[in-house]
Amino acid sequence: MSDPIRILIADDHPLFRAGLRALLDSVADTEVVGEAETGEEAVTAALALDPDVVVMDINMPGLNGIEATRRITDQTESACVLVMTMQDDDDAVFAAIRAGARGYQLKGAAQDETLRAIRSVANGEAIFGPGIANRLQHFLTVPTAADPNLAFPQLTSRELEILQLLAQHRTNAEIATQLFLSQKTVRNYVSAIFTKLHVADRAQAGLLARDAGLGLSLSGSGAGDV
């Protein structure tokens, strides 16, 4: 008999954690090895306990689930993250995927669907709810511009994300909200982008990005941001 799937539950709602633990305790092939109430606790527990699957909420006190997912996937090769949340908007879905989540499921799913999602992620599969899967299919089938990694190889993936939003004239506050970051963190990224691209301001950075095919649809001023 194979070893049970070792699971860490990261969610700030005690009732949700208790309900999920009860479900996982009721089947033979899963084992809850720990719980976390905040993103910081989730990262610490994931590194200490080395679970097979981290069931991660997005909205938690302090460090949110998106950034916690990013840190976990950056620092461990074994733990797979399944985001389980109430949020079903595109920004949250794609932010979770970019952070390294292997699955995304909405809270309220049937128990058999939850177990299937956990088992699939533990087996190395990517799994998403039906509505989310449809959105991903649409995203992947829409023609995209030239690969920004080729145009700006000096930028990290996070800096490329922010550069694209700069090209769409997004303010720091809007970027922070979309990427689940603090405005201070966004300002630091923007400054790093200016330095690496050898530009003086947002207008110059945005022009370079649009010339490379990034950020062609949205508008707004973004005035006053650094």
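Above is the first protein from milestone M3; the second protein from the same milestone is given next.
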Amino acid sequence: MALIAYDGADAAAFQATRHLRDEGLATWRAAIERHFEARAGMRVLDLGCGTGSWARAFRTWWPEVDVVAVEPAAAMRERAVFEPVVPGAADDIPCADAGLDAVWLSTVIHHVPDLPAAAREIRRVLKPGAPVLIRSAFAGRHEGISLFRWFPEAVAVLDRYPSVAGVEAAFATAGFVTAGGGPVPQVTAASLAEFAAGLRRDAHTPLKLISDEAYAAGAARLREAARTVPGPVVDALDLLVLR
């Protein structure tokens, strides 16, 4: 993984705070199903599945589909809410050639150290024409993500992530072309107060990579705003679809 290596504290924080509720998942299901039509007997890979919340959602949404979950970090696998989760990485996927009907990567693309190698491996395991569905925050696209409003120093970390164009170029080396994409709104928390109370620095790569002083200042801004700002926290990450 390129930016951080997940240990037990990171994995526990991720499990505690990064699983979306049903209202947050609903918009993603609709976005995914515009590009992937689940049918009995299909196989879907959740690559870099973390603690397994997306694999669990897929199994709930599409009980007739075989969901395969792969995660390189042992700490994440140990806390997964989905079984089984098997070891593997984007450039070493434990799946047979041309056996998958879709590959899903959620907030993982920035942890992949060699995107062209990952693209070649994903091409190997996918059936011809099957989609790669990449959910991510991308470099240069922080405006829709509330975290960066309170922690502006973290924008510089986000800008170290791959850009949409960079991912497209890397996957083009393996023959992929862009088939769709754009921002998908999600309800991240019912209120800013709930978001502030549940924030865990270890759960967010951009927050781990800013200074302690910048984090403390951002946390104070967030707590102050949470006293008065009404309504749910709605964020927009991007979905990039390649075939």
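Note on the second protein: The two ends are 24 Å apart (CA to CA).
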